[in-house]
Give the backbone structure.
Amino acid sequence: MEARKGLLTFLLAFLFITLPSGSFSSGKEIYYLDADGIINPVMAEFIVDSIRSAEGSGAEALVIQLDTPGGLDLSMREIVKAMLSSDVPVVVYVAPAGSRAASAGVFITLAADVAAMAPGTNIGSAHPVAMGGGKMDEQMAKKVENDSVAYIKGIALKRNRNAEWAEKAVRESVNITAEEALKTNVIELMARSRDELLEKLDGMKVELPAGERVLHTKGSPIKELRGGLRFRVLNAISNPNVAYVLMMIGLIGIYFELSNPGLILPGVIGAVCLVLAFYAFQTLSINYAGLLLIALAVIFFIVEVKVTSYGLLTIAGIISLLLGSLMLFESPLPFMRLSIWVMLPTIVLMTAVVLGTMYYGLRILRKKPVSGAEGLVGAEGTAAGDFKGNEGKVFVEGEYWNAWSDDALKTGDRVTVAEVKGLRLRVAKKN
């Protein structure tokens, strides 16, 4: 019995010595998500939901791999509040090489329990800008700037980071590399890869609302968090270029439906695209004067079909469409503006579609009818008998018709239909 106990103790000791230290991790998962793109309501919802999910499952930590040019202030503040109140350690990792944490990304990085960057990345340029195409007056600009400075300094002081640099990032739009950020206490870690990051995080202490916690990340399983179909679709349409194209498709669909009532399909597609476009507009910097000009252009195109304006309404519609498109997204941030290489081809295509529709519509209106009473006008036939007075019968298009004529007609004379009145034809002798 004693020999068995000794053998068991020896085997346990051997396993303890030979197994890698990562085998004795906490066993809790590390949640890992990739936040690549503009900070908008869709991105904010994804990150906040991920934090709540990590809290609910008792994850060891949540790592946010960040690469953003910035975004909306309200969305950024929603993310920061969730991070500061999280019961799970939140790590922001600006990666891979070539990535950046600019504007709203600076606030999010500084709000993390642990901030890390990969070599070849940068952080900074957090000066607030006016959204919606408007310009703030000097007093308002100062208020917004001071509010942002107070906010970012409060975040930096709470996380024991360089509050002086944080203020400069807002007031002077300074930008620094990962190496400089590490030296100036803007971040805690530099890591070339995810594995190196998790290895360096192991054993670090973080201060959470519930108290201090030591991270055990070495060898912990990783759970990748990816946005579902809803997130991918909504995030895609929140791009100004995609939203603009969706709006144009929607307007063309509505134009076809109003010009040709009863087609149904263009109206349905147009309505769906417009709803998606208007959803995207609430996440973007929209100038409503530009939106009204685009709507006015569509009205001009529709009225052109009903009113003879000799092309004036079409020209007015094209000018309104161009001006509205130029004004629609006015923002000092390049990623919040409409690309000229998307706008111009879209305007040309929409104008071509409208003009083409009008051209073929006019051709159809001017085309001679081929059936019905109108189709008989101009048709040729023969007199089926001598006309008595000015009345008699004619044979036209395989049918006998009662007719009258100002000419004296005899059997077999060739006639041309001049008018259809009820079931009678007015005919003229063909010379």
Notes: Residues 10-26 have pLDDT under 50 and may be disordered.
